[in-house]
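Regression test case RT-17, inverse folding.

Input:
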């Protein structure tokens, strides 16, 4: 469209097309996704057992409408270890928020940790992971909700370029607020461990 408009108004098609493409990319990167008050209330009170999938070693995605109703759940594309893939095609109709549960830490027997290291490994499951802001970049941008094994509740809102984390409750409030204040998207495992 931008190329045609440029040509009609006396400019060059290629310049208009490039300008239009850059504007689209900028809008996608800066679009702000925000949960509705109904979604915020629902995430803070949601019975996590009602959305957990059958395989407890993998995360479970849940999808909410504007009122905070869960309109679907899925473990498709979730592989454990804080890895879930999501596509627009799997979103149930009416989805305006994409959430997921963190699976409990899975540590192979050969790497069983004890003491402080075990506590740190366990606590990292209560911190949003590096891919948890991904719904902000999907389609027009979706807010993301996270429910952790010890019931911490978070929302990630904003844009792909500038996500923000909000702690909604659950777990130890001082730890939840600490995570909210210090979290950054794409934190490495070492950075996450230092945070806890």
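Golden output:
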């Amino acid at each position: 469209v931008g190329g045609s408009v440029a040509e009609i108004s006396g400019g060059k098609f290629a310049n208009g097309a490039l300008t239009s493409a850059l504007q689209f990319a900028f809008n996608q990167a800066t679009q702000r996704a925000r949960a509705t008050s109904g979604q915020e209330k629902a995430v803070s009170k949601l019975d996590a057992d009602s959305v957990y999938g059958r395989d407890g070693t993998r995360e479970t995605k849940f999808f909410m409408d504007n009122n905070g109703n869960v309109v679907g759940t899925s473990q498709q594309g979730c592989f454990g270890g804080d890895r879930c893939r999501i596509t627009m095609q799997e979103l149930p109709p009416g989805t305006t928020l994409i959430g997921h549960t963190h699976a409990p830490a899975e540590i192979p027997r050969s790497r069983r940790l004890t003491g402080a290291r075990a506590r740190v490994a366990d606590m990292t499951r209560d911190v949003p992971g590096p891919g948890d802001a991904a719904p902000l970049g999907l389609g027009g941008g979706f807010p993301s909700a996270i429910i952790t094994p010890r019931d911490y509740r978070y929302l990630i809102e904003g844009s792909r370029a500038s996500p923000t984390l909000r702690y909604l409750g659950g777990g130890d409030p001082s730890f939840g607020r600490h995570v909210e204040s210090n979290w950054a998207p794409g934190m490495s495992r070492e950075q996450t461990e230092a945070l806890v």
